[in-house]
Amino acid sequence: VLELVETLDHPNGWHRSTAARLLYERQNQTAAESLRRLARRGKTGPGRMVANYSLAALGALKSNDLVLALADESPVVRAHAIRLAEDFLPKLKPGVAGQEAVFDSPLAAGLRRLADDPDAWVRYQLGWTLGGVRIPGEAVAVAKLLQHGTGDRWQQVAALNAATVNHAEIIESLTADGVFAASKIGIEFVTRLETMAAGRLAKVSSSSAGEYHAQVFKPKTKANPDRARAIEQFRPALAKRGSVAAGKAVFELRCAVCHELGDVGRAIGPDLKSTRANGAEKMLVSLIDPNREVAPQYLLFTVHLAKGDGVLVGMIANENASVVELIQPDGSERSVRRADVRSIESTGLSLMPAGLEAGLSTGQMADLLAWLLEGH
């Protein structure tokens, strides 16, 4: 038995797989401790990985073994430890309601840490695993996977697979980074998550749907303490004399996707020149807490399609008996035949996301206000 265990650390894959097969066939429980030593101190990553699988095949793998494997120096070991961890965690149950509480553990903590793993394969596997299990703090981990996956389509697919529940918490984590939330990919992710949430909402009973709708959208339907604190943080900008030229540059980066002023931007949101009469303080509040007051024509709607579970999210630019025209959060336009629409519901949200002030200094906010109030 000891010779077979030692062969698992052989540099040749055929030797490793043959030894693993023989250990499985013999089911000799005395091999467990030798396998555990190899899993922790083996010379090769593949050897340590196969040792963990062999422990699992004997029914001797423990959660503490996986805690160590999740921190292994080899990404091969870490990625496969994630897969093996699935049998030690609560499985995700279908439906919105009935997701029982889960308790934290060193294993769950180890999985959460891997959301920032430098190896893309490890993060990819974590996305697929989190799509089917429950761990505390999974929403923050999923948000990190989404942010790390902006340049890789397959990373994005895996991360979105993990976003099966807790949409509100994931959205909150993503929008906490205002720069990311204002980026094109950030807007796409938040829109996709809101679409997924709306699709799940359509599948449940009216009582459960009401509860879930409140969970997903409550943070953004009215003024909240977080936005109030942000407003107070930037209130000193009202007393500063900002630079119009510098403010134009901030506007181009943060606002031009949906607003037009002078020769900059797109005229999707409100006419900013017409809002100048409201003054700098009102402008500041609108920038930081766009959902406090939303004109009906700038509300975000969910459009449920008649076939399947398809849902679109956007501002209604035009609708008649034949067609519904949407402007989506990334500024793109989409037309849907009225015959293909099952229902349309208001989210109560503004097309403009909260958190665009994140990363700005008080001086930069003063510059932005100067451009908004004086630029042309």
UniProtKB/TrEMBL annotation:
Transmembrane spans: none
GO molecular function: electron transfer activity; heme binding; metal ion binding
Keyword match Heme: yes
Chain ranges of the Cytochrome c domain: 242-376
Keywords: Heme, Iron, Metal-binding
Keyword Heme carried by entry: yes
NCBIfam families reported in the protein's UniProt record: CxxCH_TIGR02603
UniProt protein name: Cytochrome c domain-containing protein
Organism: marine metagenome
